[in-house]
Design goal:
Elements: E1 3-6, H1 16-21, E2 29-33, E3 43-46, H2 53-69, E4 73-75, H3 80-90, E5 96-98, H4 113-117, E6 121-125, H5 136-149, E7 152-155, H6 163-175
Parallel strand pairs: 3-4, 3-7, 4-5, 5-6
Antiparallel strand pairs: 1-2, 2-6
Helix pairs in contact: 2-3
Length: 183
């Protein structure tokens, strides 16, 4: 599978990045898989690293629902719960976009080979290839990218005071109506 460099002049470049992220928007994205998957309606999945049991069960049910209804899902799939949801989603036929918080992996886990070959998996990153390890800063930028690409954002659990809470506030601001203008 070929690697594609997406820039703002590429036909698959998502226009909402500039609108939502402004100067924080990446200047390029590196993609492994079918970049046309970016053109569909996407649901972003996020979860704080630690979450209560009731959130875990609700997230498993939600992931199974998305799988069974063919809903395209995007995420970093980094937290333990997100990884478990990815396992559920990989058993379905729906499109998936996996966004690592580093450059593209040199080797993909075996469970990603078939979905990639079937054209239903896109691995997408804004990080340069030399970024081999995920950091807190890269994860924050990745989460912002994932949320900006999504049509809707679903938080399985938001720990108070954490990165997910700040991300949720930012996403809520994007959805807010434009302020009224007075002469």
């Amino acid at each position: 599978m070929a690697i594609t460099l997406l820039t703002p002049d590429h036909t698959c470049w998502p226009p909402q990045l500039a609108r939502r992220l402004g100067r924080e928007a990446p200047s390029a994205l590196t993609a492994l898989g079918d970049p046309t998957l970016l053109g569909g309606s996407l649901t972003a999945l996020f979860c704080s690293a630690r979450c209560p049991g009731n959130a875990i069960l609700r997230a498993y049910d939600q992931a199974a629902h998305w799988r069974d209804t063919g809903r395209a899902v995007i995420g970093g799939f980094h937290s333990p719960l997100e990884r478990e949801c990815l396992r559920i989603l990989l058993r379905g036929p729906q499109p998936l976009i996996l966004c690592p918080a580093r450059g593209l992996p040199r080797r993909l886990p075996p469970e990603l080979h078939a979905p990639l070959a079937a054209g239903r998996l896109l691995v997408l990153t804004a990080s340069p290839p030399q970024e081999r390890r995920a950091t807190r800063e890269l994860a924050g930028r990745r989460n912002l990218l994932v949320a900006a690409l999504a049509s809707e954002v679903w938080f399985a659990h938001i720990a108070p005071g954490g990165q997910m809470e700040r991300l949720a506030q930012r996403v809520a601001a994007w959805a807010a109506p434009a302020p009224a203008k007075f002469p």
